[in-house]
Design goal:
Number of strands: 6
Largest sheet: 6 strands, antiparallel
Order of helices and strands: EEHEEEEH
Helix content: 25-40%
């Protein structure tokens, strides 16, 4: 398991989490359990389209917390790994669904490269 969190201007935060399983069947079995837990804190949600990332994928954006802050979350399974990317912003700033997809995409591509033993080439905006 690994996590990374980055904080930017205007209270914007980006987070990445990954859990690797012994085999694809275990990762696939855990997928729905993780998604149900991960999205439970969101209200007034709307789906974010992630295209065809990974073998399984879900993403939503909505309201998080009592102050009406915005949050978007994406979960993707890539082989034996379940990945999450999150984007948090103040209620004034809002969230761009395209950025959520971009963050999930670069993380997913990098996970696939790592599983295939490739040199990292994934980059945001590529």
């Amino acid at each position: 398991m690994g996590t990374a969190r980055f904080k930017g201007a205007e209270r914007m935060q980006v987070g990445f989490w990954a859990i690797a399983y012994q085999d694809e069947k275990s990762a696939e079995s855990a997928y729905d359990l993780h998604w149900d837990w991960y999205r439970k804190g969101l209200a007034e949600t709307e789906t974010v389209d992630l295209g065809s990332l990974g073998e399984q994928r879900d993403a939503e954006q909505g309201i998080s917390g009592y102050q009406g802050d915005k949050r978007a979350i994406a979960q993707v399974r890539v082989g034996t790994v379940v990945l999450w990317a999150s984007l948090d912003a103040s209620r004034e700033t809002g969230i761009d669904a395209g950025l959520v997809k971009d963050l999930a995409s670069v993380f997913t591509v990098r996970a696939r490269e790592a599983q295939d033993g490739q040199t990292p080439a994934a980059e945001l905006g590529a």
